[in-house]
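Section 5: illustrative case.
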């Protein structure tokens, strides 16, 4: 069994941990923030990311947490619509495999897939590592 350290518990870290765990590795997530982050932009989720989420059995949760965006708008400084277009075209182009959801929700859904199966360390950051003949020594530092 090989231990692997992953820096970051956003979207990529938990997704990588999921697949590494499935392949027989022992991943550990280290996240600088004291907890999963909230907020952030919305993500248009389709294509390869959608396919991977399907393989991870995440689509029911993703579809329960998506926004039902009907129009993308360009607005002026006062919020008045200058231009826009319907988002139905994205659904048509992707065969209905398109959703919009907040980045933090996707992060939480991915983390939920691994949180009981791996070690997660919050509030620490990797500050140094040293490659040794049979391992890598990692130095962590408490944040805050």
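Designed sequence:
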């Amino acid at each position: 069994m090989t231990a692997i350290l992953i820096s970051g518990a956003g979207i990529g870290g938990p997704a990588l941990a999921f697949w590494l765990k499935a392949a027989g590795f022992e991943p550990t997530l280290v996240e600088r923030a004291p907890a999963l982050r909230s907020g952030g932009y919305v993500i248009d989720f389709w294509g390869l990311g959608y396919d991977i989420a399907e393989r991870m059995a995440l689509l029911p949760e993703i579809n329960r947490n998506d926004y039902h965006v009907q129009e993308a708008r360009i607005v002026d400084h006062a919020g008045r619509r200058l231009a826009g277009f319907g988002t139905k075209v994205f659904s048509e182009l992707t065969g209905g495999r398109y959703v919009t959801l907040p980045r933090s929700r996707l992060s939480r859904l991915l983390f939920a897939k691994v949180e009981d199966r791996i070690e997660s360390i919050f509030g620490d950051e990797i500050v140094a590592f040293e490659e040794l003949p049979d391992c890598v020594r990692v130095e962590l530092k408490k944040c805050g």
